[in-house]
């Protein structure tokens, strides 16, 4: 059986909260909340296999998308904080099957909860964050010249050769996000991030069929202290 996204998310969030709790007594207690706005381009893709006959992964190529949203940061100590972020996410993945190309586009919301560590320098601060995320999909479409069935449809279809169900999509997926950034003295930030999907987008109990997303990108943010 495939791991349920809720179970994976609970485990990852428990890890993030436990790691932060170990440092609550570091330095003086300066607890406060700040917030910020963030936007930037992304390159997203999927590790996927949609053909149960050969078990071979489909050829996929990351596509250009865009993220925009905001974050809240709960400062526990001068060096450690919890960051909660919500981003509207346009993601696109190019696929090739039987020599034909397709483009899968999705629009959704990424919600993440991360532990943030700060390393202060004279003119700014380095930021390292890590924690779980979940992606809720709101819209999807597929464009191209091939006869590739849309793997993101919520309607269960059947394999024409075996009659077995396929392409039943879950409403969301979960994974792990890692980011490295720099905050200037002016409170502007620049960040690079990687999101790696752990749960499967396909709600089909099969080791041969899977769609697991990934995304990398660069974000520019302004931090309101």
Description:
The protein is mostly beta strands and 225 residues long. The chain has a single domain (5-22, 30-224), classed as Beta Barrel (Porin), CATH 2.40.160. 8% of the residues lie in helices and 61% in strands. The protein contains 1 helix and 10 strands, in the order H-E-E-E-E-E-E-E-E-E-E. It has one helix at 5-21; strands at residues 32-49, 59-75, 80-97, 100-120, 124-144, 157-158, 165-166, 172-184, 188-197, 210-224. The strands form 2 sheets. An 8-stranded antiparallel beta barrel has the order 1-2-3-4-5-8-9-10. The longest helix is centred in the first third of the chain and has 17 residues, at 5-21. The chain is elongated and about 65 Å long. The protein starts with a helix and ends with a strand.
CATH architecture: Beta Barrel
Question: If you average the pLDDT, what whole number results?
Answer: 78
Instruction: Tell the overall outline.
Output: elongated
Poorly predicted regions are 146-156
The helix/strand class is mainly beta
